[in-house]
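Predict the 3D structure for this chain.
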Amino acid sequence: MARDVQFTFDAADPAALAAFWAAALGYEQQAPPSGFESWEQALDAFGVPPERRNDAAAVIDPDGAGPRVFFQRVPEGKQAKNRVHLDVRAAPGLEGDARMAALEAEAERLVARGATRLERHEPAPPLGAGHIVMADPEGNEFCLD
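Done. Predicted structure below.
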């Protein structure tokens, strides 16, 4: 039986990192629990003190097809290169110059939202289509593919 998965990021600022990834993936913030009009209202009702309200955040695919992405506050910063990373499929079906132009445009958009561009890998046929390595605002590596 196939399982649902969620990707979890450790973060210093879960809300900010969730906002970045929502923009990068075309996702949206997960809605508050049923019966509440906002997360503030829900957290008030649950008795969560103000200093704990950015302990977690989640974003979801508005079409329900992609996995949930969860962000949890941790006290330590990122220590080393990711062993697992996300590939953001920003140029599906494109090849050559058109592909790299689409990846460059997406890289510029995400840099404006706080990402860092790390390196560009040129197409190397027959198997290498080219990609751009990026880091999110907290330094987590990902690829534009």
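The chain has a mean pLDDT of 94.
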